[in-house]
Specification:
single chain; mainly alpha; 0% strand; globular
Length: 287
């Protein structure tokens, strides 16, 4: 909501704090309190409540326009169905993403506790690494939607070029950091003695982290299609990305010589295919 008022930094800060809190609580509940999977669930719920409640309180205090009165509420049929269309696409997109992630997690679990532990830690590092790129895509979506409504297509075209360059540069730099310091990053959350877990996490981070440009551009495509009022295309890109990832992961990881590494390889492949589809449709739309 704050992005609509030109404040995209505060949501990023709350999300970053929630992610760090989630990691800390994961360690506390799982490693020290021995709550197991239940502890990971507690950690996620608590961190999300903190983030949501904190952001809601800050928003109400910061923006008077968010303090609605009953006299301000009026029903508009056109706006209502537009909101339903947009929110339905976003909801389905998130459901598809979570379902795909669940299937990947199930496949990872089949390789044993070492792979599962390495994957869990590496994914946390992964999420923190490309979170700024995700928020950049959200800010990009806001800019596109404003200029799309104002019918200023030239500004959108100019922003597309600059945004893709900025996002690509940022993702390349983050990739270098993650690749070079992957072992050290894993050791923030895993004891040095847990060598097998660290090796698994490093393989994941090096393989998947080498292609952060792919996910960075995909976030921009998501933002672009939401901005031009075509959320259905974002949903299609999500299906392409996750569908490819799931299918390839189950196929490639089935080869003994590849194993769990096949799961890591499938992730950037899904990103790249979705990027290609998004780029092709964008070129057609711009013309």
């Amino acid at each position: 909501m704050l992005r609509a008022f030109g404040n995209s930094i505060t949501p990023l800060i709350f999300l970053a704090i929630a992610s760090v809190l989630n990691i800390i609580l994961d360690i506390v509940f799982v490693m020290f309190l021995n709550y197991g999977v239940k502890g990971a669930g507690y950690a996620t719920v608590i961190s999300q409540i903190f983030s949501g409640a904190g952001l809601a309180i800050y928003s109400l205090l910061r923006e008077k326009n968010l303090r609605l009165k009953f006299s301000d509420i009026k029903f508009n049929k056109k706006d209502f169905f537009e909101v339903v269309r947009m929110s339905s696409s976003a909801s389905i997109q998130q459901s598809v993403m979570n379902f795909g992630i669940l299937m990947i997690q199930g496949l990872v679990n089949s390789f044993g506790t070492t792979v599962m532990a390495g994957f869990t830690v590496a994914v946390k590092i992964d999420a923190l690494a490309y979170m700024p790129a995700q928020e950049f895509g959200n800010a990009f979506s806001l800019f596109v939607s404003q200029n799309h409504g104002a019918k200023k297509s030239d500004r959108i075209k100019e922003c597309i070029k600059k945004s893709f360059i900025i996002s690509a540069i940022f993702c390349i730099l983050v990739s270098l950091v993650v690749i070079i310091f992957s072992e050290q990053l894993m050791q923030f959350f895993v004891s040095k003695d847990e060598t097998d877990i660290i090796i698994t996490g490093v393989k994941y981070l090096v393989t998947e982290g080498s292609f952060y440009v792919g996910i960075g551009l995909l976030f921009l495509f998501y933002g672009y299609y939401r901005g031009i009022n075509k959320p259905e295309i974002s949903l299609i890109l999500t299906v392409i990305s996750l569908g490819t990832r799931v299918v390839l992961a189950y196929i490639i990881s089935g080869f003994d010589m590849i194993g769990a590494s096949g799961i890591w390889i499938s992730i950037p492949v899904g990103w790249i295919l979705a990027d290609i589809a998004g780029f092709i449709y964008m070129k057609r739309n711009i013309k």
